[in-house]
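anyone else get weird line breaks when pasting these?? whatever heres mine. first is seq + C-alpha cells for prot A
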Amino acid sequence: MPISSSAATVEKKKVVRIQKQYQSIDQNEAQQTERNLLKIAPALPTKDKRNLYVRSHSSLNALSVTKFHESRSLSESVVLRTHPDGSVHVSRLQEEKEAHPDRISLDRRGLTCIPFIDGEPRLRLLSLQHNLVINLEALSKQTFLSLVFLDIYDNQLEHIQHLDTLENLRVLLMGKNRIKKIEGLENLKKMEVLDLHGNQIAQVGGLSLLSELKVLNLAGNQIRIIGLQDLHGLHSLQELNIRRNKLKKLLGFADTP
C-alpha cells in the first residue's frame, strides 16, 4: 500500500535522527581512540632552522654529501694567501680542521688555478665548484694519497691533465667546463663515477682502463656516434647518461653487461 506524504516525512525524520545518533557515537569513539594513540610529529618541522642540503646542476657534487656553509663562516675558516712566487696557498683554522678534517670547500672563490693545500694529510673531498680554473697543474705538485672525491664543476678547463697522482680517486666531477676530449684518466683505475656533462666532447674514448667505473655522465656534449670500441673495458658500468647530444648511431654495447 503506498505511503502518504505525511507518513513519508515522519519516516525520513526518523532516519535522519538515527543517523545523527550514530554519527555522534562514531565521533566520540574516534576522539577516544585518538586520545589512546601516540601523537606523531610532522616529518618536516615548520620552523626548521637546520642547514639545508643543496645540489648544483651536476649529477653528483661535493655539496650533495656535505652541508652548505654560509659564506661568512667559510671565508673566516678557510683562508687563501698568495705567496711571493705567485702561488696560492690554503690554510684553515684549527677548529675548522677538527670539524671537517677530511673535506675542504673552495667554491666560488674566483680561483684561476688549483691552490696549494698544506698540512691536510687526511683530505678526502675537495670541492672547487664555480671558479675560473683553467688547468690542474698544481695537483701534480702535491700529494693527495687519501683524496677520493674531486669536484671541479663549472670552471674553464679545456683539458683533462695532471691527475696521474690521484690513484685513489673514486669520484671525478668535471661538468660544465670546456673539455673537448676524454684523456688523462689512465692512472685513475679505482674511479667509480665520472661526470663530464655540459662540455664540448665529440667522441667517446680514453676509458678502456677504468674497469671499476659504474657511472658515466656525458650528457649535453656533441657526441654523434658511440663506436664499437668506445665503451670497451667498462665491465662495471651501470649507468650511462648521453642525453642532449647529437646521436645518430649507437654501437659497442655488446660487451657492456
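and prot B, same format (seq, then C-alpha cells)
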Amino acid sequence: MEGKLMRIRLWLLPVHASSRALRLGALLGVAACSGPAHAGESDIAERIASGLRQRVDIAGEATQTFDIQQRLRRYKVSSVSVAVIRDGKIAWAGVYRQPSAPAADTDTLYQAASISKGLTGALAQRLTGSNKLQLDSSVDACLRPWSLPSGQQSPEHPVTLRNLLNHTAGATVSGFPGYPPSQAIPTDLQVIKGEPPSLTPAVAIQTIPGAAHAYSGGGYTIAQVAMQQCLRTPFAELMRQQVLQPLRMRRSTFAQPLPAAEHNRARGHYADGSEVEGGAFVYPELAAAGLWTTASDLARFAIGVQQSWKIGTAFLSTTKARDLLTPALNNYAQGFFVVGDGEHKRFMHSGGNTGFKSTYAMYLDSGNGVVVMTDGDNGSYLGGEIVKAVASAYDWPDFKPRLAQTAPLDLATATRHVGIYQLDNFEGRFANRYELRFDGKDWTMVMPDIGATRLVPTGKNSLVSPETGDIIELMQDGAQDLLLIGGRKAHRSPDS
C-alpha cells in the first residue's frame, strides 16, 4: 500500500522534483492523491498542505500558517479527505491522515451528514418531472394513509415539498443524534411520529408554512417519506437511480447502516479523539443526514449541479437547476445555502453527524470549488482552515480570514469575568464548561471540545479567538456576570 501511494505522489509531481515529493509526503503523512487536471497542481497542493489558515488574522501580527499534520493532531482528527474543483473539473483529490491512523484513500467513505440535503433537493427536482410528485402541492397526498397532525398548516398555507426543502414549512426537530449500531433503529415514520425507539420528539408544524425559516431535519424526513411513498420506491434506491448513478458517484450510498462487507470507510471520532461506538452511528433520516460518500463523489455532485445551472445537462435542465438554487428565506434554497452575486455567487453546505464533520462550496460562474470531509467532531475547525488555504492558494474572491484590530480591555471588568461558564443551550457530548483565563498578560478560553484557545482583546468588553473566530463579549445580567460566546449566552457555572 505504501509503495502504491508513493508512486501516486511521484506521478502527481514533476518527475524531476523528487525532493519536493518527499517534503509533500512528510506534510501529508500518508496520502493518496489523484492526478491533476491542471499543470502546476502539485505545487499548489503542497502550498495548501503547509498553509492552513485560522479564521481571524490580527492586524499588525505576521500571518500565521500551519501544516496539515499540526492541525490533525491539534483537533484530534484521524483523517481528512479533500477534493479541489477548477473550471468544472476535479483538479486533484487527496486524503491526509495522522501516521498512526488506519489506512485511507480517495475511495474511503465518510458520513456527509446534512450535506445529504442538497442531494435530496436535486432528487425532488428530478422526480417532479415524472408528474408523480409536485413541489408546490400539499404533501399529505403522498403520506397517506398517514397524514401530518394538525398544526399551523391550512388549505391556504399547506406543507409542501418545496417549503420542507427550503426550511420554511414550520417543521420542528432541527437535527438528529444518530443511533449506535447496537441499539434499536427506528423507521423514518417512527422518527416523524416521535415513537420508540426514536430518540427525538414528534415533528410538528409550529409556524405557518412559508412565514419563517427554521432549519429542520424533521422536515426533510417528512420529505423522505413523501417521496418514497409517492414513487413506491425506497428512498435509498430512488437516490441511487436518480442522483448517484447519473452523476457517476460510484462510491456513494444511502445505505444505513453500511453493509458489513464495506471495509473502506472512515471511523468517526469524538472531540477527545476516542472512536465512536461501532465506528459510526446509524441515521435512518436519510434525506437529512444519511449519505456516505467521498470528497471526489461530492465534487462530482457539485459539478453536476453547477453545470446544470450554467448550461443545462441531462441531469437537470437550466430551469430546474435554477429553481433548485433559488433561495427562499435565510439564503436557503432546496438543500443549499446560496450567497453572493457575480463572481462571488456560490452554493454550499456543511454537515455534522456524530464523529464526522464536512463542508463544501462551489462557485456558480467559474466552476471552482472545494470539498472537505473529516472523521472527527472537531473537523469543522480543520475544514474551515483547509478551505481558507485552498481559497488563498487559488486566489478566490471569498473565504479569506477576517481581520481584527486589537484594542485595550477594561481590565477591571475583564478580570471580574474570569471564571467558569456554561452555555444556556448546550448540545455537546462532553461537559458544558467554558473557562475564561487571564495570567496577567494573555487571555485564554478553555473550551469543551478543543481545549485552550488564545483570545485577543478587541475592545473594552470584547475579545476574539483567532482560531475559532468566536467573539467573546463580557456582559451583565442584572448583578450576574455572563459571556456571549459566538453569540451564545453563557452564565457562570455553580463551580466557578
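btw re prot B: The chain has three domains: 2-97, 110-355+366-373+391-402, 411-492. Residues 1-31 have pLDDT under 50 and may be disordered.
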